[in-house]
Predict the structure.
Amino acid sequence: MLRKSTVAALAAGGALLLSTPAWLPGRVVALRMKLFARVNGEEGLAFPQEEYGGAARFEEIYGQPAANGRSKGAALSDLFWYWLAPGADVHQEHLEPGPRYDEVSRRTLAFLSGTSAELYEAAARSTRRVLDTLPGDGVRAVRLRDLMMPVWAEFFYTLVFREECPPEARKLIVDNAEDVVNALKCTRPRHMRRRERLTRYLLRRLAAGDVPHELPAGLTRRQHAYYLQGTFFNTAVVQMSEAMAHLLLVLAQHPDVQERVATDDDRYLSHVMNETFRLFPLFGVAHRVTTADIELEGMPRIPTGSVLTFSYPEYHATGYPDPERFDPGRWETLSAKEAHHIPFGIAANRPCPAWRLSPIAMRAATREILARFALDSPVSHTRSIPHRAPCLLLPRDRPTGTPAHRALRTALAVRDRAEDVGRSVAQLVLGTYMVLDARRTRPATRFFAEHDTEGRPSQAAHTAPGTADACPFTGRT
């Protein structure tokens, strides 16, 4: 016979084990953040903060001309360059201000140009092509980010090459984008060989003269490949997939909103998108490095070389009644220009180049999906969305609430809670490893020790004859 104390201990242990999905993920995430701060070093000034005027002066500080440094001088840059390799030195988000950034930015906007009707139809066509490949015709359990990534791979391929995307190219783009975003979320380690397969493909297409756009001047062919890979087939595909995962998951968890979006005009859908971006901004924290002192009335001086970190979630939570509540109706009277709402950054300081294109393309994709499916999901919804947004796709012409539908819904909820445990531990381990590896390899620090802010070899690090076009990280030309 077991003693009562032993039975009680076993019962307590069992209860603790069964309750791990409720408490372990949050504890592990908090521990991971502490480890990141300890390992990566705490640097910079965080905004908004009361000493610098709080949310009321957030955009004023963010928009200062001297808050324009991007990579040089910030320890955070080593980690971001590590995640975005290869070619982080020509990635538009991480270029230093100057002629090279201006040229790259100009060319990117040309790639993304087009009439609203053209962009809408291109996004709708890409969505239809992917939805047509879904197997079966019943209820489907999908992960929304995985569903949308091939859509945006096709869409941005058509913008870059002005032709229909072949399956092999779509797979290369999706594999690359998935590897980048999984590393960024610390759910899987990075696989450089997977990314380099896309680089080789782009180099072949560039050598054949297959890109019908003017590319940024002053870059080598390999740098042109990295520019296309980083700007369009990494950042653009990842961010649009994340944005759509948030939007579709919101609709799946608010059936009244979903039904109105499916039958209402685009004005209401715009309100839903604004509220989704407010609650789940794609950017967590953007950092800038000051290139001169910033002196503003009523606040302490910000010295040259300071790293400024701007928190989008914190800013988006200010200035609204009941800010944690999802309420598209608030945008009936709110103006996005006047609200604390900067989903694409601010115009004065390197806004997202797809600020015009994204809402158009997202609207088209949403319409195509809701024309075929009703969405339903009981899973958690956080800004980082590491579970890739599990969801049920229910054919529009089939009844909902059936026993099979309810069983799948329950299974989805149980699986999500169980996966949280293993995923949070994996994020702790992999995140710590990647932070340490980035500090060891120091890709941004090494680059700026050998190059100026325009990417030219510095006087302290002359290149050997015949290697002027070599990639600074791989040595390849």
Residues 403-441 form the longest helix (39 residues). The first strand starts at residue 45 and ends at 47. The two ends are 75 Å apart (CA to CA). Residues 342 and 396 are 34 Å apart (CA to CA).
